[in-house]
Specification:
The complex is a heterodimer of chains A (568) and B (83). Chain A has 568 residues and is an alpha/beta fold. Helix content of chain A is 62%, strand content 8%. The chains are: A alpha/beta (568), B alpha+beta (83).
Chain lengths: 568, 83
């Protein structure tokens, strides 16, 4: 049996999904996160039922890729749970009535029931049930209220198949239903609405944005450094280092296996950035240098997403983004890219035209460093002084703007206008934030750890075989002539294809000057995406556009690196 | 007795309320706006517009919607004379 969970975006569908299945799932306050649908299972009597979280859609007459998917999936369902936002009954009923035309039984979950009271809305549930001809259960997804009743009423789901000849006729029926079941009580503006209006105002909006982004930056630094200083560094220094030194002694302090496992000793000691053994640098980079910032970043991002701030940022930045051939909505995948470019490129699907998706994906790959790379840049370049970190970020930002301006003039096709619902500000329950954070952190560890270890292993083996000297000699003219880097840094740039964080780590033993560090990390950030992003780019854009994007990246990286070499 | 004023959404003042009388666009635009609850006969209140022909934000029922400047110019609003 297949149960489809359907509804408008921002109605709390994904939270209900996680309540029904008990598994962890991502639920967000902006439309578009569940373009890739999520499946789960639940027990229904003796039977195992499959539940599918269908992407949020306003109508069954699709207007975007996400809505197409939703209409397509409808054909496979045996039962539909239609999640309705009780505070937006009229608009939500449009989808409900469209669903009731289909030969599939429907049950309505009247969600956000607790919000109706704050907003002075009164809905007669029994009457609504009678008028729709299907069961209606009021629910509060975030607390779980009404979920049991919803499940127990599933067998009563019905398919009235009332067909309307036109959308005008359907809207007339909706107007009729709403006037019969809903009554409004007058009440004053809440502080939340005042805040909402302020962040939509041009001046208040910019002030809010600066405040929010500043606070976000502070939280990320505070949490990230806190974890490093009080958790991971003490653990490594007091527990792991003594163990490694014992192992090093047992292996005879040098030799092939010693260098692969422990790495080279620096002044007779393990140096987590420079030793480059599997058990030293190989686990230090992902777990101690990068993971704290991954946790900090996704913690902050999760709150921003679920509070409902991002669509407001999209509106604020829309005018600027139009100059780059995008509209404000593209800021959402871009911000995701600051965590990891893979989900960011996937999220470009929320953009309507092919041209926009190409521009957005290319700009993300060039100018948006992922959290792993940023953590290493801050760790390594930051040792030379914070101003050098600022130069790296500034170069990336300026490149992002300039390349966007150029792409806007050269890429054919059109970029449509922004049209977006602004969800009300809500503070999500900590449990939901925690679950989402865990899901993201877990997938980082699962995907990054093996690749980092693999990359360190490959580096060690190629180094022993002398392959790097060969590559370094070939690349020397470009590197030293154009970028002013020692030829050994080519190895790091090449490894950047596997993992950017490991690549920055490989720069550590080279003894680069501050200027060389700035150039090499900037080039590393821009020149090409890591292999995981590469695969996703090819899948989302097609092989031809992916190659085009890669060409742009390499050219841009060499130009920017060359300019830095001239100017700095 | 003064005449009702007609203007497009982008010309409204922030805080002003009016009724949508026509969407001056193709079926695509009409459908997308309709999906968000914006259609003929609905009352809308403009909240703000961003500078430099940026998006226009407005409220209809309990939904806040933002549309690009070009779209805002295609939404025709009638404003009743203030009493």
């Amino acid at each position: 049996m297949k149960i489809l969970l359907m509804g408008n975006p921002n109605v709390g569908k994904s939270v209900i999904f996680s309540r029904l299945t008990g598994t962890r799932t991502i639920a967000s306050n902006y439309p578009g996160t569940t373009v890739e649908f999520i499946k789960g299972h639940m027990k229904l009597g003796q039977e195992q039922a499959e539940i599918i979280d269908v992407p949020g859609t306003y109508t069954l007459e699709p207007t975007s890729k996400a809505e197409e998917v939703a209409a397509e999936m409808l054909k496979e369902g045996d039962l539909i749970i239609d999640v309705v936002d009780a505070t937006n009954l009229e608009r939500n009923l449009n989808l409900t009535l469209q669903l009731l035309e289909k030969p599939v039984p429907v049950i309505v979950a009247l969600n956000m029931w607790d919000d109706t009271r704050h907003r002075g809305i009164n809905i007669d549930v029994a009457r609504l049930e009678e008028l729709l001809g299907v069961p209606v259960v009021s629910t509060v997804g975030v607390t779980g209220q009404g979920i049991k009743e919803l499940v127990s009423h599933l067998p009563e789901a019905a398919a009235p198949q009332d067909i309307y000849s036109s959308s005008d006729e359907r809207w007339a029926k909706i107007g009729d239903i709403v006037s019969k079941v809903q009554s409004l009580i007058h009440r004053h503006h809440t502080w939340r609405e005042i805040l909402e209006d302020a962040s939509s105002h041009p001046v208040g909006g910019i002030a809010t944005a600066l405040l929010v982004l500043g606070a976000t930056f502070f939280v990320i630094r505070f949490v990230g450094e806190g974890i490093i200083n009080y958790v991971t560094d003490p653990l490594f220094n007091w527990l792991w280092t003594p163990l490694l030194m014992k192992l090093s002694l047992a292996l005879g302090s040098s030799g092939f296996w010693h260098d692969i496992l422990v790495g080279k000793l620096i002044d007779g000691n393990v140096d987590y950035f420079q030793s480059f053994g599997l058990l030293s640098t190989g686990i230090y980079i992902p777990l101690a240098a990068v993971l704290p910032y991954i946790i900090a970043f996704y913690f902050a991002l999760g709150i921003l997403e679920d509070v409902g701030y991002l669509p407001r940022l999209a509106v604020l930045i829309d005018t600027l983004m139009h100059r780059l051939g995008l509209h404000g909505y593209a800021i959402i995948p871009t911000i995701l890219g600051l965590g990891c470019n893979v989900p960011a490129v996937m999220a470009t699907r929320i953009l309507e035209s092919r041209r926009e998706r190409f521009i957005a994906a290319t700009l993300i790959s060039i100018g948006i460093p992922c959290a792993a790379l940023q953590a290493m840049i801050i760790g390594l370049v930051g040792q030379q002084g914070i101003q050098y970190v600022a130069i790296v970020y500034g170069s990336l930002f300026i490149s992002w703007i300039i390349i966007g301006l150029i792409l806007n003039h050269t890429v054919r096709g059109f970029s449509p206008e922004l049209i977006i619902e602004m969800p009300p500000y809500r503070f999500p329950p900590w449990r939901v934030i925690g679950e989402k954070l865990w899901l993201r952190v877990y997938s980082f560890i699962k995907e990054a750890l093996p690749i980092v270890l693999g990359a360190v292993l490959v580096v060690n083996i190629l180094y022993t075989l002398g392959v790097f000297d060969f590559i370094a000699n070939i690349a020397a003219p470009v590197l030293s002539g154009l970028l002013g880097l020692p030829k050994e840094s080519v190895v790091a740039l090449a490894i950047g294809f596997l993992r950017k964080d490991v690549a920055v780590g490989m720069l550590a033993p080279l003894g680069l000057t501050a200027k060389q560090l700035v150039i090499s990390t900037t080039v590393l950030a821009m020149v090409f995406p890591c292999v995981a992003t590469f695969v996703i780019l090819a899948r989302e854009l097609g092989a031809r556009d992916m190659l085009k994007a890669t060409g742009i990246m390499i050219a841009a990286a060499l130009i920017v690196g060359g300019l830095q070499n001239l100017i700095l | 007795m003064s005449q009702n004023t007609q203007l497009t959404l982008d010309q409204m003042e922030a805080g002003q309320t009016g009724t949508v009388i026509q969407i001056l666009g193709g079926r695509g635009l009409t459908r997308r706006l309709e999906a968000l609850g914006v259609r003929q006969g609905k009352e809308v209140t403009k909240i703000s517009s961003m500078l430099f022909r940026g998006p226009v934000t407005f409220r209809t029922d309990y939904t806040q919607v933002a549309v690009g400047f070009g779209m805002a110019r295609k939404i025709l609003i009638e404003i009743a004379p203030s009493a």
